[in-house]
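Good morning C.,

I know you're traveling, so I'll keep this short. The sequence:
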Amino acid sequence: MKTNRPAYLIRLALILAALATVCAWTCEIASAEDTTATFVSPSKPVERGKAPGMKVKLLSDDKQTKEYAVIFSKGDEAFSGLLDFADKYGVKSAHFTAIGALQGAILAWFDPEKKMYREIPIDTQVEVLSMIGDIALYQGKPVVHTHMVVGLPDGTARGGHVIEAHVFPTLEVMVTVDPNAMQKQLDKETGLILIDPDSGK
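The tokens, ready to paste straight into the viewer:
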């Protein structure tokens, strides 16, 4: 069977042209998204004192670990509040979970090439489906690291590293404070402050 080579080559050329157009369009979209994205440095200072409604209750103390309920109220910014809690109670090592709701947040995704966090803004009322994190020391001061998944009104979810979390009506954080300090060190490759289990031994 003979093949009509000119017609075949024409079809192939049209397919390749279409693929090139799609690839160019996709690259333009990705480039546009990247130029409009907001990035924040991992070392950006956290504004303190933004959770005036925070309340703390000691739930248990067995001389080794302590359990606290840290409850945030309407309008509190929880990330700032967790740092204030760690400072006030001398926390050197802890882990926590939380549930509640927010009227807005800034989550983030770490871009290893830029060595910065790409912000994921949340501009609506959401449920906190899961929030987990830890507290450790860097240069003698507590550092909070936490991730969060939130549920949107349509039932979809978004998640990431927490930059800000604006509470409404409540956020209930259960904190376990451990007896042995955890230390963080600067990771030069990423620019992040990471827990170093061997530090301080």
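Safe travels,
E.
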